[in-house]
Structure formats: C-alpha cells, structure tokens
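I am writing to request your help with a piece of structural work I have in hand. Thank you for your consideration; the sequence and its tokens are set out here:
=====
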Amino acid sequence: MQTTKTIRVAIVDDHAIVRSGLANFLRAFDDLEFVGEADNGAEALDLCRRLLPDVVLMDLVMPKMSGVEATAAICRKYPSIQVLVLTSFDDENFVQEALRAGAIGYLLKNASIHVMAEAIRSAYAGSSVFSSEATQALVRLRDRTPLPGSDLKEREREVLSLLTQGLTNPQIAETLSLSLSTIKFYVSSILEKLDVETRTEAVARAISCGIVSKTSGFNKA
C-alpha cells in the first residue's frame, strides 16, 4: 500500500537503542517521516499534543505510564492519531488490552522493516493490522471464551467482512449499494452483538472467532 502523503510517525519506547533503530528504519522510506520520540507513556501524551503525528509506534511495558494507558489517552484526546502497538509481547491479554484501549493494530518487534512500513501505511489509512503472533493470541483467547456473533445476520456479516478489509462506511455503502445511514446502523449493530466498542475491536473479534474468512492482518516476513 503506497500513499502520496508523507506519513508523520512518532516512536514511544523506553529503550533508547530501540528508538534509534526505529528512527533509522523510518528514514529508509520516502513516504515515512520520523517526527519525534518519547520514552514513556506520559511523555507520549505531551509529544502528541505538540506534534500531532499521524501514527504512533507504541511499546507496552514502560515506566510512569504504560503503553495501554497512553494508547487509551491518545485515542480519547487525539482521535486523528492512529496508535500501532510495537512490542515484544504476544500474550493474549496484552493484545486484548491494547485493542480495547484503541490501538489500530499489533506488531512484534521482530517483524521485518517492510512489514512494519506497510503496517504504518495501513494504520494511517485506517486499516487494522496484526502480526501472525497477535492473531494466534486472539485465537487462543477465543478458545477460552464463548464465541460472540452467532446472532449476526447475513447482511451484518457482509458489512463485517468489508470492515476487516479496511473499508470506510462510505466505501461499504457504495460496495453494497446501500445508504450511508443504513451502513452506520449495521456497524452499530455489529459492535453491539460482538460486545465491542470500536471498529478495530470488531475486526479483532471477527478474526479470533472465525466469523469472516478474509482479514487485513499481516503475517511476519
């Protein structure tokens, strides 16, 4: 996925060597711009206030304020900023907490630079992205909990399938030849039936429960 706009990216990680490596990686791509860094969640909030980056690469385990807490605060205060978790942990609880906080995706730090770059572009475009490990974590979570979504109607499943492909409400309305208000109604109904609050959580729940067969997640290369 390519974009004509330069995507402004900030890095939040408590390890200076990680921040330095990620900054150098961003400089290798013409459409990605490194704009700032923070070493904890509290500093991340101030960074977002000052710089308003397009995408934040967010670590989870940090002092003063965790990545989950920072993600929730950023998504609440600055809804235009997309938070993409980049961590070493693939535990299902971490994945679930990050998505509940509002993160648009979840990658591990051992992903290739090209996977990371594509994930940033997709996050900026509003598409949910998951490493294969994060997807497996969601599957493990599914195996321990009752599966929601059994009462989804056929049209709701069609809308959900298009959500997993990163389509916006207007794009879904055009694809299905339905009005925008109808699509908004279906999306609200899907969120309620899946017991989630955001579109990203709905996509994650659809993946973990096997409700749709096609997803927009990335496998680690």
